[in-house]
Amino acid sequence: MPRAGLDPAAVVAAGAALADEVGFANLTMGLLAERVGVRTPSLYKHVGGQDDLTRRIAVRALNEAADAVGGAVQGYAGRDALAAAARAFRAFVLEHPGRYAATIGQEPSGPDDPLAAAGQRLLGAFTAVLRGYDIEDRDVNHALRLLRSLFHGFATLQASDGFQWSTDVDDSFEWLIAFADRGLRTL
C-alpha cells in the first residue's frame, strides 16, 4: 500500500529537489526513499527505477525552464527578448543545477514522449526570441544550437564553479548576451 500523500508527482518533486541539494550525480533511490520517509522498494510503486526517475525529473526541469524562459520574454523582442531569455535560463540552471543536469543526454523515445514535448516547449521559447532577428528559416536550427551552446555552457560552468578568476561573472554574462545579439543581427 503506497504511503498516504506519496504519488509519482510527489516522488519526482522530491527527487528534483534532492538532486538540486546533493547534485544529480549523487541522487540515488535510497537517498530519495530516506527523504520521503519510505523504504527504497516502496519507491518502485511510483517510479520504475533510477532511469525512470531521471527521465521524469528531466521532463519536469525542461517544463520549468520553458515556463521561466517563456514568461521572461513576454512583451519583448530582439535584444531585450534575448537578454530576458538568457537571464531566465541562467537563473533556472543556477537555482536548479541538479534537476537541469538530469536533462543532459536524455533522448525522447518518440514524438509522444513527454520528454519530447517538454524539450519542444523550451525550444519554442527560444524560437520566439529568434523571431526578433532577420534569420532565414533554414538557419533557425543553427541559431538555436548557438544559443543553447552559449547559455547552457555559461550557466553550467557557473553552476559548477567553473569561473575561478576575478572578473565579475555578471559582467561576463552581459558581454555574452551582447556578443550573441551582434552575431544574430549580422545573419
From TrEMBL:
<dbReference type="InterPro" id="IPR050109">
    <property type="entry name" value="HTH-type_TetR-like_transc_reg"/>
</dbReference>
<dbReference type="Pfam" id="PF00440">
    <property type="entry name" value="TetR_N"/>
</dbReference>
<feature type="domain" description="HTH tetR-type">
    <location>
        <begin position="5"/>
        <end position="65"/>
    </location>
</feature>
<dbReference type="InterPro" id="IPR025996">
    <property type="entry name" value="MT1864/Rv1816-like_C"/>
</dbReference>
<keyword id="KW-0238">DNA-binding</keyword>
<protein>
    <submittedName>
        <fullName>TetR/AcrR family transcriptional regulator</fullName>
    </submittedName>
</protein>
<keyword id="KW-0804">Transcription</keyword>
<dbReference type="InterPro" id="IPR009057">
    <property type="entry name" value="Homeodomain-like_sf"/>
</dbReference>
<dbReference type="InterPro" id="IPR001647">
    <property type="entry name" value="HTH_TetR"/>
</dbReference>
<dbReference type="Pfam" id="PF13305">
    <property type="entry name" value="TetR_C_33"/>
</dbReference>
<dbReference type="InterPro" id="IPR036271">
    <property type="entry name" value="Tet_transcr_reg_TetR-rel_C_sf"/>
</dbReference>
<feature type="DNA-binding region" description="H-T-H motif">
    <location>
        <begin position="28"/>
        <end position="47"/>
    </location>
</feature>
<keyword id="KW-0805">Transcription regulation</keyword>
